[in-house]
Here is the input.
Amino acid sequence: MSLKREDDGSVWMHEHLHTGFSTTYRLEETLFDSNTPHQRLVVGRTEAFGNVVWLDGVTQVTERDEFCYHEMLAHVPILAHGMAKSVLVIGGGDGGMAEEVLKHKSVEKLVMVEIDAGVIDFAREHLSSINKGCFDDQRFELVIADGKDFAATSENRFDVIIVDSTDPVGPGEVLFTRSFYSDCKRMLNDGGVLVTQNGVPWFQSDELHNTMFNFANLFADAGCYLTVVPTYAGGFMALGWGTDNSNLRAVDEATLQARFEAVDLNCRYYNPAVHKAAFALPGFIADIVDKATQQADETG
Ligand code: SAM
Here is the structure.
């Protein structure tokens, strides 16, 4: 990440997540810039996307387009499941994922395992437009720990597990491993589903291939579905999908509609038609999934 002041006095934040490509935001004010014990946390008010959170120089969430990501990673698994009572979020420090999950009255318990208390502290104070104070919900339990360690030792069981992590660099790297995914599977109740933040295939095809290879070895139904988040530049964003309950993907639109209408989700991205369509993959993404699945079949 780098800051540049232009001749006209404007200040621009450059994110360099992808080789040879950068995303640039016109910065109106830097609200926070400090190192937590785990990562560098920068928050700025930008002209185009409102408040933006960067961790180790990578865009995590913006006020303007967070709903495109949080709605699809939360409501697709929960509405497909239909009776989710216990949900685990790993990561999710901004609170946006927890806010969406807790809209479901069927959810009796949400455990969120976040490695960095500094992100939570900042989010409580400065990102209420995203988390809307969900941290105070009676059903919400916060665990400050490495998600990998939690998954390896927890006796808890969950109907839906959502990995809302950073990318596989720094503290997030351990959340893209076979052993972590295997531990997540162990924590799933029968019929449960694991979904994961899996990057932008246009730039991060290896990340998706790795997760699909591991999911194909672990789950009867392994794949991904898509969303589009303008500030996760590069087109479609892949969300990993792993479950032994192949019925979940097949839930028809009418059933999803009935479940959707029963909960006042007030969504601006998610709807049942988009839910079903999100599993339709363009050829270049389907190829990544197919090759990973084939490799898993051949090597195990
Ligand atoms: N929407 C973002 C994305 O798609 O990259 C993710 C946002 S959320 C802020 C990512 C969170 O994962 C951060 O709060 C970070 O501290 C947390 N995190 C990273 N590695 C972790 C780990 N090993 N265990 C638990 N939380 C972790």
